[in-house]
Amino acid sequence: MILIGSMNLHRTVQRGDFICPQCRGLESYRLRARRPFLTVYLIPLAPLGNRELFVQCQGCKQRFDERILERPKRDVDRGLEAELFAEEALRAAALMVIAKGHFTEEDISTLQRAGEDLFGRPVSREPLGELCSSAFWNRIPAINYVQSVAHRWSQPQRQAAMKACFLAASTGGDLPPDQIQRLESIRQDLNLTDEEFEQAIESAVELE
Ligand SMILES: [Zn+2]
Q1: Rounded Cα gap, residues 67 and 84, in angstroms
Q2: How far is the CA of 64 from the centre of ligand 1 (A)?
Q3: pLDDT tens across 126-136, in order?
Q4: Where, residue-wise, is CATH 1.10.3680.10 in the chain?
Q5: Which of 11, 29, 149, 164 has the largest count of CB atoms under 10 Å?
């Protein structure tokens, strides 16, 4: 029997300093590349996908999306191009599901619904599966991901992202305490007022 599997290979591609949202100050980071490889007898033979980059803080060891390195001193009002935003918000929602530790059929259809709402068109399972797999293997927690990318989102985009994250966190009508905490952290990182937060939750409940 030939033993076939897969593994992730990591490589540091850049080092520097950044403002870490967890350490709340200037810290060193390593920009690392992850690439999945097909293994035979545990020997990596062929890449299975493209390399993906993530930023790792040398202080707290937390992982962030590489876009955190573009984070400006002030927030941008213009917002992000719609398609790019939809993809980032759906990834944040997928990370809320990943935080639970398991995926159900109901989670997948919830993410499809959230995706349809964000993109304005149906999202099929295949690209959704790729997004979830990449989000899972990069091991960037939902909160860190939002802290990395949300500086490019406009206020309405922030509300739309909050809505998607709430939907993903509350699949099946169940909202455990750790998910409530995560949503509250995200609300703070997104600078949403109580009213904006409530609006986002209300529109999410309408979509359920
Ligand atoms: Zn840190």
Answers
A1: 12
A2: 9
A3: 999 999 999 99
A4: 82-207
A5: 164
* First-to-last C-alpha distance (Å) of the chain: 48
3-state DSSP of 160-186: HHHHHHHHHHCHHHCCCHHHHHHHHHH
CATH tag for 82-207 (out of 3.40.50.150, 2.60.120.260, 3.40.50.1820, 1.10.3680.10): 1.10.3680.10
Interval between CA 18 and ligand 1 midpoint (Å): 9
What is the Å distance from ligand 1's center to 140 Cα?
Answer: 13
Q: 152 is written with which tokens?
A: 């490019």
d(CA 87, ligand 1 centre) in Å: 25
Contact 95, 182 (CB under 8 A): no
